[in-house]
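for the writeup, i need someone to sanity check this before i put it in the appendix. the sequnce is what the collaborator sent (i think, or maybe the updated version? ugh). structure was predicted straight from it, no edits. if anything looks off just tell me and ill rerun, i have time this weekend
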Amino acid sequence: MEQHPRGVDRISSIPSVLLHRILCLLPIREAARTSILSRQWRYIWTFIPTLNFVNDSKSKKKRKKNPLYNCNWGQIIDKVLLLHNGPIFGFHLQNTLEINIDDIDQWVVFITKRGLQQLTIHCSCSGAPYKLHSSLFLCSSLVCLKLVLCEFQIPIGFVGFCSLKYMSLKHVYVSDEALESVVSKSPFLKQLVLEKCRGLSFINVNAPELLSFHIVGEFHDIKMNHSPNLKHLRICWDYGVPQNCMLNRVLKGKTKLQSLCLAGAYIEDLLDRMAERFLTTYDYLKVLNLSVESLCIDTIKEISFLLRSSPYLEALQLKISNDPVMECEESRILEIDVDMEAKYEIRGFLWKTLECDSITCLGCLRRVEIQSPFTYMEDMEIVAFLLQHAEVLNVLHIKISECENKDRQLRIVKRLASFPRASPHAKLFFK
């Protein structure tokens, strides 16, 4: 074992590049405090290429223990930027409650001239949204942009982000035109996240290199006619169904999809009988995540179509809400009476819809997660169907939701566990 003489500073012998990388992981306040370790450490923090400004000064305990936490947060950032040497590749600002908007403008102008590659601005909920300074749209080195509670407006003469690969907008005000402009003028954009944004109605995503698209919120329509390389897609709509949106158009041509998540009310309305419009096979789709209100006939048909179109599916996640307010007249709903159902052979309309293609559509399925209150017979049928036809199934996780009756839970668990299994390795886990 190698012996080190007493008094040797092993940490200071670490290469500067590695030290800078380590300090980049710390909030700037903690990184700056390393200057007291020794004379050698005094200015190391001024060379770190990534600055993490996390305003934790609201903690009363920290204010009492350390007077540094009583300082004006904006003044701290000003001083850090003044003392900083070298490029600034990353700038991450969180909690802007105590910061003047004009100060943020000055910082953005400053860092965009220092080789900025990653920018995060997370404004406070109680403060005014920050309107992005026009200088940001001239930053050709920007690779990653994350905005929360900001205002996104494209200046006249915007030519695009030639290096942008990742963009996340959460609770951001952005118009359809602004989003379309920045996406279409970012030729290397690979990941796009939109969550609860205001101002979006008709979303047009024109990004040939896009690999991942995640959208949560309220909108009317989505067009993705020029994203043939898309691998991961998540669409979650709020406040009912967008009447103009047809998922058959969104999914058409996306044959490289590896994971697909669809959530929101009335999935059958959004799919709009996509099985009758065209036939597309998703040979690369491995993960399918669906959240539906109930298993009415239309919903079952669309699930059937997606399963048949995904012959190599390995993981299925299905969440069934069964909202008591919702009613589907076409569905032959049966309230569960476990004693009577035990004598009844589970072979309803769901089986007739799916069974003919069960071998091809479930041939690779290994993992299933189902969350349901198991209020209706159809919820039981889907479990029975998957167990009987998924020949390589390893794990089936079942979560019985919204059920406080322990006796009813036990009876449901016993019935589900009694279904025959095609896979000798299939294990059921209940929660």
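Residues 286-431 form a domain with the Leucine-rich repeat, LRR (right-handed beta-alpha superhelix) fold (CATH 3.80.10). The two ends are 50 Å apart (CA to CA).
thx in advance!!
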